[in-house]
Amino acid sequence: MEATFVARPSELKEQLLEKIEYLFDGDDRPVTIVLKRDDKPRYDPQEVLKRMDETRKKYPPMEISADIDINKLIDEIYWEGNH
């Protein structure tokens, strides 16, 4: 059996060890725990901002009237012949 836990150092508490122990309950074989530090974040903030900017350029915000009937718009999108 293999299980992967991803946790921050602040989350390494007794409850995590209890969960690991529970997963391997009844199996007295040795369990190996490998600690790995991610040197870079899972995402690049600059890349996220770049993609967000590209999306805004591709789909620019639109102003709509305050008295628009949102239900009518939804009905127009989902009318039977539209999908």
Describe this structure in words.
The protein contains 3 helices and no strands. The radius of gyration is 25 Å and the shape is elongated. The protein has helices at residues 14-23, 45-58, 70-77. The longest helix is centred in the middle third of the chain and has 14 residues, at 45-58. It has 83 residues and is an all-alpha fold. The mean pLDDT is 82. Helix content is 39%, strand content 0%. It has a domain at 45-82.
Short recap of the structure:
By secondary structure, this protein is an all-alpha fold. 39% of the residues lie in helices and 0% in strands.
Determine the number of helices (DSSP H or I, runs of at least 4 residues): 3
User: For the report, how would you describe the main beta sheet?
Assistant: none
Task: Give the helix/strand class.
Answer: mainly alpha
Mean pLDDT over the full residue set:
82
Q: Compute the gyration radius: what is it? A: 25 Å
Helix fraction, binned, reads 25-40%
Low-pLDDT windows of residues = none
What is the general shape?
Answer: elongated
Give the SSE order as H and E letters. HHH
In what range is the share of β-strand residues?
under 5%
Query: Roughly how many Å apart are the termini?
Result: 44 Å
Number of strands: 0
